[in-house]
Design goal:
202 residues, mainly alpha, disordered N terminus
Amino acid sequence: MAEAERIIGTPDTPDDGGEETAAPGVSGAEQQRTEDERRPGRGRRIAVLFAVAAFAYALDLVSKTIVVAKLEHHAPIEVIGDWLEFHAIRNPGAAFGFGGAFTIIFTVIAAAVIVVIFRLARKLYSFPWAVALGLLLGGALGNLTDRIFRSPGIFEGQVVDFIAPKGFAVFNLADSAIVCGGILIVLLSFRGLDPDGTVHKD
C-alpha cells in the first residue's frame, strides 16, 4: 500500500511513532502551527471525499437494484437506437468484463484500494483530489458490495452490469465512477498537484 501511495504522489506516513520530521529550515513549532492552520481545510476536503463517495455509491446501488428487479431476464431496452442499450448481465470479472476467472483477486484489489484511499485521506488538502478519491471510493464500494453479497457466494459474487454501448463492453455506474476518478487523478498528476495541496514541477 505504501507503494500505491507513492505512485499517486502522497508523502509517506512516517514510521517513527507518528511524529513527522520537520522540513529543512523549519522548526518543529512552526511546522505544528502550519499543520494546525491547515487542519480545518483538511476536514472540509475529507467531507467532500465522503460526500462524493456516498453519492456515487448510492447511485450505483439504486441503479443495480432497479436493474435486477425490472430488467434482468428481460429483453434489452434501447436507449439510443442500437447505439446504447440497457442490458442486464452478471459479470464475474473486473470493470468492463475483463478477467472473469479472477473474481476473488479483483475482490481483494477493490478492498485494498479502499484501504489506500482511507490512508490518503489523512494527508488530503486538495479539493480536486477529494473529488477524484471520492469517485474511486464510491465505485470501489459499489462493486465490492456485489462481490460480497451477490451470488454465487461471499467474495465471489458477480457484479451487475447494464450499460451497453454498441461495440463496447457492458458496464455499470460504479465502473464509470472509477474511470472518471482515475482520469481526474491522471490530469491532476500532469498538473503537478499533490493530494496534500502542494504543487510541484518535474
